[in-house]
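Incident log, structure service

09:12 report received: a user says their structure output differs between two submissions of the same chain.
09:20 pulled the input from the user's history:
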Amino acid sequence: MPERQTFVVVGANLAGGRAAQWLRQEGFDGKIILIGAEPDPPYERPPLSKEYLRGDMSRERLFIATSEAYREQEIELRLATRATSINPSERSVELESGERIGYDKLLLATGGHVRRVSVPGSELEGIHYLRTVADSERIAAEVQPGRRLVVIGAGFIGAEVAATARTKGLEVHVLEMAPVPLGRVLGEELGRIYAEIHRDHGVQLHTGEAIERFEGAKRVERVVSSSGRTIDCDFVVVGVGIEPATELAREAGLEVENGIVVNEYCETSAPDIYAAGDVASFYHPLLDTRLRVEHWSNAQNQGITAAKNMLGKQKAYDDIPWFWSDQYDLNMQYIGHAPRWDEIVLRGDVAGRSFTAFYVKGGQLRAALAVNHQRDIRASRELIKRGAPVSADALRDEARGLNSLVPQTA
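09:34 re-ran on a clean worker, output below:
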């Protein structure tokens, strides 16, 4: 009787957790070991800056499965356990305890590390970063009406924390290095609209301002910006992005460039080693480019695809990138990938904050941002997938349903 295979997943996060679940769903009857450095089983991160931070969601609802579900699926959880090295030639993973675990197939879902600021005073108490459940809980303890918060960085995490704090009655300042928030991703015009939304809700947004230093005795008491602006505060949240956690892969000799390099099947440069989620730099066959995506849908769906390919399905991962952000009474959804564009076409009521921005290049839709205009997302996905030619007038015309622009298949 053939010996049972062992599949090891390093990274007990959304990508790793979904991969482990899907291995069972696809009929794998071997041993599955899921290794995670955090003490908690796989959970969803988006609520950490929104519902969970506000206190509107229980801790249990964060987790993608119960402990009982993992036992029933015979998924061995190794939590609060750090993998320190992998050996592709020996097909083994070494843990910080010195234990070595052999594998037949290995998935690296190691995620990312928060970028930290290194300025005078950065060791003071009351300076927070947001990546884990524990981080969110520490920040939540600080979020009390009337207190003063400074957020460093106006990306999506920083903006969501700022919005949550404003809805809870805090005074909020945000420092952003760029002239407008998210200008590189959304463009100057949309970046200005994004800034106006926060200012309309009472956030004091300071653009073109970097952090110079933190000041205080034992705990942070004020922030000094690059222009010399001084802002008194009770605590700080730094949200300046993440770095892919590539250490294991790099030390093992796998190809690494802005993440662990994988093909459209989630395969790394080493046999029987796969990567998925925030850490994976993958080739997208439909968009014909290499991407690394740090969003919920990518982590979940790429983890599932990696599991299928570990079982020999050879399924290309070609999901169109999609993410959302809830801030105040606004739902923002972005679909596609548009590092460059020829024009941005607006559809809907911009002043009333219910519109879609279409990013068009070469007569094709490359991406769309919908603000309280979710109905446009599905049709936009199809237009992007099919590379259909579109006109600015047709995109702009609300009297014409967006679905009518999607080519009909025979």
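09:41 both user submissions now match this output. Likely a transient worker issue. Closing.
09:42 reviewer note: The CA atoms of residues 326 and 332 lie 6 Å apart. The first helix runs from residue 14 to 25.
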